[in-house]
Amino acid sequence: MKKGRLVLPSDIWRKLGINAADEFFVQELESDSLVLKGVNLRALMQDIIEKARNVDMDRLENEIEEEANRLARRKYKILD
Known about the structure:
With about 80 residues, the chain is an alpha+beta fold.
């Protein structure tokens, strides 16, 4: 991915406590408006990993199979 650069005035850096290594999510609101949201990717990934550890894989597999069967019955008009 190509990195772009965005320059912010130093007084904004100080006011918001921004560091050079900080990462941001950027969302375009309109053709001339952007929103920058600071994001801690390491903390976000650790949170996702922790939540994934708590997933009951057998239950998830059963739920996926049930949903696939439901969709197949509907698609092929199979009655229960």
